[in-house]
Specification:
Blueprint (H helix, E strand, L loop, with lengths): L2 H33 L10 E3 L4 H9 L17 H11 L10 E6 L5 E7 L11 E6 L9 H12 L3 E6 L21 H13 L4 E7 L1 H12 L7 E7 L5 H7 L7 H17 L2 H6 L7 H8 L4 H7 L10 H8 L12 E6 L11 H9 L3 E6 L20 H32 L1
Helix pairs in contact: 2-14, 8-11
Length: about 425
């Protein structure tokens, strides 16, 4: 190479480096835009329902179901970030509602616990109404998203009863060799019975989050008597079929296999925190060999096969998942039922959303709301960066419940007036 060629090449080097820098910056920006889903438009929830007087009334009375859900601009359109922030942070500026812890002895020796929070004021209908709430997997009344929702509901005139999943509360020992499972409704049923007996005039609003949504829908569908005095039910971010959900948890799309590993690790730690109880009780169906297998588990199916299915004597995983899923009971629910899911929920595969969609198509009491964004139990709202303390989920549940309460109040008044007119 001649000297003139070297000089020309040397002069072009800075321009080449500048071009490479610009290309690198462009690539990073492209990755950020794609990973944060910044180009995805905001939209109102997609609502599936039958055209009935109740559904028309609800859509008119619940504007949040028909207006855009706007997540924080910079990160709120990423289902992963919504899910991770919910898991790590719960909520921002979390209040600390004051409640009373209740202990309920069960027939098998277990002790169910729930926290009772009185309303901060009178409900706008003048009725006594209690929200009976079932949290997500391994959760309890002390979780931040539960505290935020309870505080908001109290201020709207609702008494709240929050189940603490069996074995989930820190520093509360088990009194029998059994923990909560995906679809065991015993503890939730005991809490509901207590509320009905303690407050004979109260009406119930049933609320379930994630795994709790499966439990409450299964509970209501198991026996018609479970729906007595229930005004409505709201289920948020559940998967409907444990069998189908576990099959999707082994897929890598949407990093679902990674979430599977993290949830399995959480469940392992929770179960092993009660290891002494399982080892010391003669009636335990869980032996040391089961707990040793649990130590090596890297997925929820392995956790369930080692320990969870044995709490109720299920012979195999398939039987466990089939018996624990609300999909076989939810069609028996007759009260107004709002099912809420997010399209970008990395834990609930989109194929599972066919279940609530078909249900809302067939049943006049069911409404299915599917948001474009929100992740798993996130649903944060905000302008650019910082989320608001109350989420879209918190406000929608209360707005829907308020509408149902007014609907039922008017319906009861019409019945009373009609009865009086007949007598006169």
């Amino acid at each position: 190479m001649e000297d003139s060629d070297l000089q020309t090449f040397g002069a072009e080097l800075p321009l080449m480096f500048d071009g490479m820098k610009l290309a690198a910056v462009a690539a990073v920006l492209y990755i950020i835009v794609r990973s944060l889903n910044l180009k995805s438009p905001t939209a109102p929830p997609a609502i599936t329902y039958q055209d009935t007087p109740l559904s028309r009334y609800l859509l008119k009375s619940c504007p949040m179901l028909s207006k855009e859900y706007v997540p924080p601009l910079l990160w709120g359109k990423s289902g992963h970030l919504q899910t991770v922030l919910y898991g790590k942070m719960g909520r921002v500026n979390t209040p600390t509602p004051c409640g009373i812890r209740k202990f309920l002895p069960m027939q098998d020796g277990a002790t169910a616990t729930f926290d009772l929070f009185e309303a901060s004021g009178e409900h706008r209908t003048g009725d006594d109404i209690t929200m009976v709430i079932c949290p997500g997997i391994g959760n309890h009344s002390e979780k931040r998203y539960i505290r935020t929702f309870v505080d908001y509901s109290q201020r709207q005139g609702y008494r709240c009863a929050v189940l603490n999943h069996l074995g989930a509360l820190p520093n509360v020992e088990l009194t029998s060799p059994r923990m909560f499972t995906y679809g065991c409704t015993w503890e939730f049923g005991a809490m509901v019975d207590y509320v009905k007996q303690a407050f004979p005039q109260t009406l119930l609003v049933v609320v379930g989050f994630s795994l709790g949504g499966n439990i409450v829908c299964k509970f209501l569908g198991e026996k018609r008597s479970n729906q007595e005095r229930v005004l409505c039910c709201i289920s948020v971010c559940q998967g409907y079929s444990a069998l189908r959900a576990q099959e999707t948890f082994h897929q890598w799309d949407q990093c679902r296999r990674l979430y599977n590993f993290m949830l399995a690790d959480k469940m392992k730690k929770l179960v092993l925190s009660h290891r002494s109880t399982f080892s010391s009780m003669a009636s335990s169906l869980i032996g040391e060999a089961d707990l040793n297998r649990l130590l090596a588990a890297t997925s929820l199916t392995q956790v369930d096969d080692s320990v969870m299915r044995k709490f109720h004597g299920h012979r195999c995983l398939r039987e466990f998942y089939e018996k624990e899923s609300c999909v076989h009971y939810i069609h028996n629910v007759c009260v107004p039922l709002l099912l809420v899911n997010s399209l970008d929920d990395p834990l609930v595969h989109q194929s599972l959303l066919d279940i609530p969609c078909r249900l809302a198509d067939k049943m006049p009491n069911v409404m299915f709301a599917l948001t474009q964004h929100g992740g798993h139990m996130g649903f944060f709202e905000g302008d650019v960066l910082f989320p608001q303390p109350l989420t879209w989920m918190d406000k929608v549940i209360v707005e829907y419940t308020n509408a149902i309460c007014h609907w039922e109040k008017k319906r009861r008044l019409c019945k009373t007036n009609s009865h009086q007119d007949t007598r006169t």
